[in-house]
Amino acid sequence: MSTQHHSIWTDLTGVSFCQGFLDADGIRTRYVSSGSPDKPLLILLHGTGGHAEAYCRNMAAHGDHFWTVAIDLVGHGWSDMPATDYEIADYGAHLLSVIKALGRDRAHISGESLGGWVAAWVALHHPEQVDRLVLNTSGGWTAHPEVMDRIRTLSMEAVRDPNPDRIRTRLEFLMHDKSKVNDDLVEVRRAIYSRPGAIETMQRVLCLQDMEIRRRNMFSDEDSTQIQAPSLVLWTSHDPTATPEEGRRIASLIPGARYEVMNGCGHWPQFEDADIFNRMHVDFLLGR
Q: What is the pTM of this model?
């Protein structure tokens, strides 16, 4: 009996999409996009050590309604890896430059983990540039030493020795159902982690797993109450970084925020249960 092969390409079958690079104030930034530029702009942001392929199962559903652009954040994926700080304001400046490079003044912004942290920072400090905000198992509010140590250890092991087994172990950290880590996804990340300079850049990226640096980047309760954008806080039943109760507390601090939990998922619900995520996410972004 044959087993179906799961691939990023099969996820994108039938999707009209493009991949390219843009200049975000000097940062060569890789993107994957679907939908047309005459639609409202939606930017999708991955997590620590991630890349745009985190959203390969979401491009079709969102491209029907939005100019959907998943980017590789600075220091990640195939974007530039400058020897600079990698704190949240630095990522936020990169995101603002991407919006400008796309010829827009504002966008819907949806971020997972680190991406949510960056999205919320922009919503807090530049509210005029954010239409709707989605915080998907977001960083920025919690600091658990055991989680931070696990992320640091798995990430450095994978980038120092980017063989398929180590890459798979890093990706399995993200999933409740480990079998959803397919060979295609492993190979994409293996190639990225094999780039010249990847080790040094990962060390810089992981600065947010240092408690002192992390705490100075975190949102206070007062910060949270100042977020003006209509917000969806999306959590999961098995997120490895924070509990659903912690996610609920984040939503309670943001005025008018909607809170949802996806069951049977870990840290990548947009990938693990794309059908439910896409339906819920599109409905929220359309104001349904």
A: 0.97
What is the residue type of 105?
D
User: Which of 81, 73, 30 shows the shortest CA–CA distance to 50?
Assistant: 73
Return the bridge partners of 33, or none. 18, 69
Q: Which residues of the chain have pLDDT under 70?
A: 1-4
In 3D, which of 48, 255, 45, 218 has the Cα closest to residue 134? Answer: 45
Segment 142-184, tens digit of pLDDT: 999 999 999 999 999 999 999 999 999 999 999 999 999 999 9
What's the rounded Cα separation, in Å, for the pair 267 and 174? 5
- CATH number for the domain that contains residue 105: 3.40.50.1820
β-bridge pairing 27-34 and 41-45: unpaired
pLDDT tens column, 12-52: 988 999 999 999 999 999 999 999 999 999 999 999 999 99
Please report whether residue 51 resides in a domain: yes
Residue 177 phi/psi, 5-degree rounding, is -95, 100
How far, rounded to the nearest angstrom, does the alpha carbon of residue 157 sit from its chain's CA centroid? Answer: 21
Containing structural domain, residue 79: 8-142+220-285
177 in a domain, yes or no? no
- Residue 2's pLDDT is 46
Instruction: Quote the number of domains for the chain.
Output: 1
The tokens 């977001």 sit on which residue?
Answer: 138
Nearest alpha carbon to residue 61 among 274, 287, 236? 274
Residue 180: inside a domain: no
d(Cα 62, Cα 69) in Å, to the nearest integer? Answer: 10
Domain annotation covers residue 211: no
Instruction: Please report which helix (H) or strand (E) contains residue 170, including its range.
Output: helix 164-172
Report the C-alpha gap between 252 and 257 in whole angstroms. 7
User: Which helix (H) or strand (E) element contains residue 112?
Assistant: strand 107-112
